[in-house]
Specification:
The chain has 271 residues and is of the alpha/beta class. It has two domains: 136 residues, Rossmann fold (3-Layer(aba) Sandwich), CATH 3.40.50.720; 124 residues, 2-Layer Sandwich (Dihydrodipicolinate Reductase, domain 2). Helix content is 32%, strand content 25%. It contains ten helices and eleven strands. The strands form two sheets. A six-stranded mixed beta sheet has the order 7-8-9-6-10-11, covered by helices on one side. Helix 3 runs parallel beside helix 4. The longest helix is centred in the last third of the chain and has 16 residues. The protein is globular and about 55 Å long. 39% of the residues are buried.
Length: 271
Amino acid sequence: MKAVIIGGGSIGKRHSKNLNEIGITTRIVDVDEIDNIDQILLEKYDFGFVCSPNVFHIQHCLKLAEHNIPIFCEKPFYTDRTGVNQLLKIINSRNLTTMVGCNLRFTDSIKSIDKNTPYISAYFGYNLKKWRPNTNHLESYSANKSLGGGILLDCIHELDYLFYKFGEIKEIEFDKYKLTDITNDTEDLVRGKIDFRSGTKASFSLNYLSENYTRYYDIIEKDIIKRVDLKIDNDMYKKQTEYFVQKVTQNAACMNNFNEADYLLTKILGE
């Protein structure tokens, strides 16, 4: 099997490595080759990975869909809905396997969450200056609105796993803040709450400002609140990749496919 990866940054290279380890040949398309993407996609690819800056995700997903290539898109699926209806129409009419890369779903800590809990609180914090070593954080997509940055969508993992476990959202509210100069023009802190139709209530806090990497959730179990640290499991990336490849070979629908991801983002963005 052969995969094309659009975007040669750190996450694109990570996906390439994971695919190579399970015997799949990869072709990474760097930024300076994007203008030739139509020519590149004339080659035979079994599936494609979109790992470009957030603001280009829909544009590059459309390119793959137009060539009948199953698509794995890095999170977030999009930053606004321009082109989304066109993309969904193509993938649904052609029955293309699609998936958005929210990998926390593949961790034991998330799988073990009791769907009947009355309350859960999710927290993520990491200092943007430390996030991508040997790079200028102000040049990253995270720090720039024009590239689709901001902590809300950059760390949509927390909202995704809450949706994954508790289902349809009744109401969501949040406040976005830019409190420091750690970004150029994107929010560096978000706090909010979600009411799920299942009855579970959730809160969340995300930021680019924590001195050290911190990720956990607090959950009510019986009559106590229990804190669960979300240790990043390096295997979750491989499990996610293997799951997607399996679904492609079966021509089957993935969890967190484009239709499902669109539902969550319309709730968050209000579009």
